[in-house]
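Why do we care about 3D structure at all? Because function follows from shape, and shape follows, mostly, from sequence. That is the central idea of this module. The next example makes it concrete: a single protein chain, its amino acid sequence, and then its structure expressed as tokens.
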Amino acid sequence: MLQLAYEMSDEDARWVDDTLAKLIERFGAERDRIGGKIPYIAEDGTYKKDMAATPEDLIWWTNGFWPGILWQCYGATQDEKFLQAAREVEDKLDGAFDRYTGLHHDVGFMWLLSAVADYRLTGNERSQARGLHAAHLLAGRYNPRGKFIRSWNRDRAGWVIVDSMMNIPLLYWASDTLGDPRFTYVAEDHADTVMNNTVRGDGSCNHIIVLDPHNGDLLETPAGQGCASGSSWSRGQAWAVYGFALSYRHTGEQRYLDTAKRVANYFTSQVSLTGNVAKLDFRQPADVDWWDALAGCIAACGMLEIARACEGTERDEWVTWAIKVLRATDERFCDWNIEHDGVVTMCSGAYFSEKDRHVPMVYGDYYFLEAVLRLAGKDTLLW
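And the structure:
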């Protein structure tokens, strides 16, 4: 049995051991089927679409998660086949830099899990340069009057989404790599703005905040991917849990850890009502039976990150919660057929989007894998 990274029951330890073995086998099989193609959503058990096939799809924000899976598997196994497939994707993502138009705040998702992962695991200098290129693009979106990094493009100069908290670790990494604190200052300004305007008193979060781009004043809070303004899109809550916990790791600022705990406590209070799996929106109408397994996988990673900063009983409680969410996801929403693509099913994109509701999405698999690897003490920090 593995030497596990956290205290847990023998039953949970066996589950971690068995589940990790299944995941490595499963992703090895997927690697052999799709290699350096870039998957997103599995249809009928198959990744049919290659997101690298067109310039428009190549800039899609989730394109870092497949190489992220490959790099995590490489870090855990040292199997060169994972490395080779990950680098094939990394090379293709250069085309997104070339296109440039359409890239936005999600360059962190795209290059932290591809090029920066490569640099962290192998020291590849070309990969370091790619990561720094992406970091400069992200820092260039900073609004110094409003103290935020703008999300998306088009006519949305004051828009910020909570997902952005998962992208700013690219800036912390750039500061560490270059010995230049300006990237961290941008990240901290942004994190404070999100913390002060997105997180509500009860620990729930807005998905979107619209700020005055001239002074940073809060103007409105659209529904975004939730069911209404003032609702509680579950994946948005999960982004906040993990994002603020990571900002604490990189800065040591207690306010970020306190915020992560507050949102995590809200998250657990909600999933405890539904068998430890997340509704698509925690405030959706009672007669709506829509789920998002992704939210639980992301939140579990965040809870383990919080646990890392805690001691004693509090640490154990966060680990226990992460395991409960992961095991519920496994029991209710995982497809372990090795001939299929996509492990975590019942992932959902947005509340009002039918085309990507209750489907396997590649980033659900990434976070599920990362969380299990963390529990096993075999993960690589890619954030």
